[in-house]
Amino acid sequence: MMMAGIAKDRTAPSVKERSSVSSLSGHEFRQKELHGYTKNSRSTVSYMDEPSQRDDASRLTVQMENTYQLGPTKHFPVVIVNQILKDVLTNYLQEEQYEPELCRQMAKTISEVIKTQVKDLMIPRYKLIVVVHIGQLKSQSILIGSRCLWDPKSDTFSSYVFRNSSLSALASVYAVYFE
């Protein structure tokens, strides 16, 4: 009967916590269980605890459970990201001439701009890696390779190559799904 009362107290949305403490020792409690009530009197102490500010703060924070979602609900939009890469590289490098120091700084700036624009698409649970290479065009060739360990069902990439009379640029965005 008392357990049902305690269970009701725990499930009811109460502001105050209630509890009681019994004065029976372990031996007296076992004796009571076996033979009913003992000759000794039984006393209880009850108290009410006001919630502290810490308890209020812990109730306000939301603890998220694992979703156990193994695949994306929305796939990474490769076509849209390709257009972003084309637009950004064209806008930043259309009129530029190759200068090593300027191109080093431009590679950093362009990668940040691309990352920001792709993040603005609000694609949930994808981690993004943006890499931009800028090199001089002077009758030489360059071979850029990359290797990744990923799940081909959910992870993907997008890349675009830009060329003008003085320089060549390659921008790549790798999208890795975070389970």
Describe the structure.
Residues 1-36 have low confidence and may be disordered. The longest helix has 20 residues, at 100-119. The protein has helices at 2-11, 26-35, 53-60, 78-93, 100-119, and strands at 17-22, 44-49, 126-136, 156-163, 167-177. The strands form two sheets. A three-stranded antiparallel β-sheet has the order 3-5-4, with helices on one face. The protein has a two-stranded antiparallel ribbon with strand order 1-2. A hairpin with a 3-residue loop joins β4 and β5 (167-177). Helix content is 36%, strand content 23%. It has five helices and five strands; from the N terminus they run αβαβαααβββ. The two termini are 46 Å apart. With 179 residues, the chain is α+β, with helices and mostly antiparallel strands.
Assembly classification:
single chain
Percent of sequence in beta strands = 15-25%
Largest beta sheet: what is the strand line-up?
3-5-4
What's the overall average pLDDT, rounded? 78
Summing up helix and strand content along with how strands pair, one would put the structural category as: alpha+beta
Number of alpha- plus pi-helical segments: 5
Biggest β-sheet strands, sense, barrel: 3 strands, antiparallel
Regions with little confidence, pLDDT below 50 for 5+ residues: 1-36
By DSSP, the count of extended strands is: 5
CA-to-CA gap between the ends?
46 Å
> How would you describe the shape?
elongated
Q: What helical percentage do the residues reach?
A: 25-40%
The H-and-E topology, N to C, reads as: HEHEHHHEEE
> Mind telling me the C-alpha Rg?
33 Å
